[in-house]
Amino acid sequence: MALRLLIADTDQEWALKAAMHFKSQLYDVDVVLSGKDAQLKAYNEKYFCAIINYDLQNHSGTQVIKFLNKNHPGVKVVVSFDTSAVKGGEDFAAIKKNIRFGATYSKDDDFDTMGDFLESHQSAADMMNVKPTSDVIQDEVEIMLDDNEFTKVKIDEFYSSQAVLFDVFVQLASGKYVKILHSGDKFTKDRIDRYKNEKKVEYLHFYKKDAKKFVKFANYLAGKFGSSKKVATRTKLGLIKNVAEKFVETAFAEGVKPQVVNQAQEICTNIYNVIDSSDDLNAILREYDEFDPNAFSHAYAVTMFASMLIQQFEWKSKTTVELVAMACMFHDIGKMKLPPSMLHKQPSELSDTEMEQFRTHPELGSQMLSKTREIPNAVKQIILQHHERFDGSGFPAGIKGQKILTLANVVGLADEFYHIMIETEEKKPVPALRKFLTNPALVKKFNSVLIENFLKCFVDPGKIKRK
């Protein structure tokens, strides 16, 4: 069933043009030209979103928004305005203040900008219900596009609803792709398996702009399977890995918006459910070899290590695990402010000048999130301190001992351990753990209780006691 959209605007030509655009995006659209009619429509019908003109007559924009907030608080609100109309306008500030769950856009913006906002607030169920399924297998289409337009996932880790939510491609060569699945195509595993087995395709590609849809759907599956004892832990981890990596990639590209934080909260809950319900997670992590040296895999690995470490403490709780998981996913967000060439480099690969810049990223990240009310202050503090070390050798402030948040030390240990794995080219955790423990300079950076509990993530606790 299509999501319903209400457009209320005094400019009939603009409103009809907007309606035509959003109908092409599979919304069911109603258009009214006054505030009074907008309220009547909202009273009698159920809408996903209302696009309200700032300058509405016969019930002002402010009145309509207050009516929606009071009577239909779940409706998303987009305020459209003419740039010239709001200059010096006292009412516009009041309108923005009254938007509980929405955004403001100039009518000079293209409709895709508003569309991105609407899409970001669709649930996975909304996306699946709205997308019509076609039984017709559409022809493959070869295209030439810049590689930077795309992101990719391993073919074994691609998940879809019955109707494919976005176009899917196979890369033939740099800049050369074949569209193998069209948005709305009926998804069958047989079609994917043919590319995997017959054509030896390893990765499927899709537009970076569609990564949000992929994250939303994969996170929906992770939510369904996270606590299930019937689903293998490796399957759950694969889902969480895909969700976390693509989420962080999207956050780095678009910044930390409220809807991004909401998505992060859902992911953190799913991570907790997987960890809490999987008795064999320690054994699997001992043998896990899916870690690779890029910024987005880094965030996932650190999240898993830190979350598992928290589970070893008696004071663990769902809230604590979720706080740490969120801090891990955003812990390097400050690198957005550094030169792009530094994003995927390991610390050992940085020049002296780059290292000076690198050492600023905890503060930059904390500053970026300072005005984001949706992110708890504890998460911001963990991000600020995740490179501080117990012996005072860390940065940015060089504090030590009990002055550092324990949870920041947890994230710091997980982060340091991941870098050891990459820099020593150890693909599995246990050999890297041996190298860590036999390096006194590294060991003294962390509280011994933290290290002892980190061991329990990978080693049978009974063996630690015996040996």
Total helices: the number is 22
CATH architecture descriptor of the largest domain: Orthogonal Bundle
Spans with pLDDT under 50 lasting ≥5 residues?
Answer: none
The percentage of residues in β strands lies in 5-15%
Rounded Rg: 25 Å
Order of adjacent strands in the largest pleated sheet: 2-1-3-4-5
Break the fold down into its secondary structure elements and pairings.
Blueprint (H helix, E strand, L loop, with lengths): L3 E5 L3 H13 L3 E5 L2 H10 L4 E5 L7 H11 L4 E6 L1 H4 L3 H9 L3 E5 L4 H10 L3 H7 L10 E4 L5 E5 L13 E6 L2 E6 L7 H9 L5 E5 L3 H15 L7 H22 L3 H20 L3 H7 L7 H16 L7 H13 L21 H7 L2 H9 L7 H9 L20 H18 L5 H9 L2 H4 L4 H8 L5 H6 L1
Parallel strand pairs: 1-2, 1-3, 3-4, 4-5
Antiparallel strand pairs: 6-9, 7-10, 8-9
Helix pairs in contact: 2-3, 3-5, 9-10, 9-11, 10-11, 10-13, 11-14, 13-14, 13-18, 14-17, 16-17, 17-18
Please explain how this structure is put together:
The structure is a single chain. The chain has 467 residues and is α/β, with parallel strands linked by helices. It has three domains: 4-121, 3-Layer(aba) Sandwich (Rossmann fold); 131-209, no CATH class; 226-466, Hypothetical protein af1432, CATH 1.10.3210.10. Helices cover 51% and strands 11% of the residues. It has 22 helices and ten strands. It has helices spanning 12-24, 35-44, 61-71, 83-86, 90-98, 111-120, 124-130, 189-197, 211-225, 233-254, 258-277, 281-287, 295-310, 318-330, 352-358, 361-369, 377-385, 406-423, 429-437, 440-443, 448-455, 461-466; strands at 4-8, 28-32, 49-53, 76-81, 102-106, 141-144, 150-154, 168-173, 176-181, 203-207. The strands form three sheets. The chain has a five-stranded parallel β-sheet, with helices on both faces. Helix 2 (35-44) runs parallel beside helix 3 (61-71) and helix 10 (233-254) packs across helix 13. The N and C termini lie far apart (62 Å).
